[in-house]
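Entry, Tuesday afternoon. Goal for today is a structural model of the target with zinc ion bound, before we commit to ordering more compound. Inputs were pasted exactly as handed over by J.K., no edits. I checked the ligand SMILES twice against the vendor sheet because last time a stereocentre got dropped in transcription.
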Amino acid sequence: MKASVSGGCSCGAVRYFSRALTEQVSVCHCRDCQGTSGSAFAVRAGLYSRDLEVQGAEAIAMHVKPGASGRATRRSFCSRCGSQIFISFDAIPDLIFVQAGTLDDSSWVNPNIHLWCGEKQPWVAVPADALAT
Ligand SMILES: [Zn+2]
Ligand SMILES: [Zn+2]
């Protein structure tokens, strides 16, 4: 686990920094994450909303949709290059999650939680020691 993180979108218009991380690094296999990522799942690291600093916020566009809780799920992406950067949930306002592929250094990322495994692609294997829901 790292003490601080930085990252940004593919074109560099949006950059973010955080001094603290949560312990949560998750993989989400839900259909929405498959669709919005254009891939089989999303990998993300949890940050504390209060610690997040963003540069280039004017380039961020947001797609808002009700999540499983009935409250909004907010997916932020760069309006210039389309990189998904953040996802947040109105049901848990203290946290914001960065898409792990946007981290400058993602070598430490080791997901310990797999979410929505009921919608998982059948060829994706969840490690036996991960928490799966
Ligand atoms: Zn960009
Ligand atoms: Zn998902």
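The chain has a mean pLDDT of 94.
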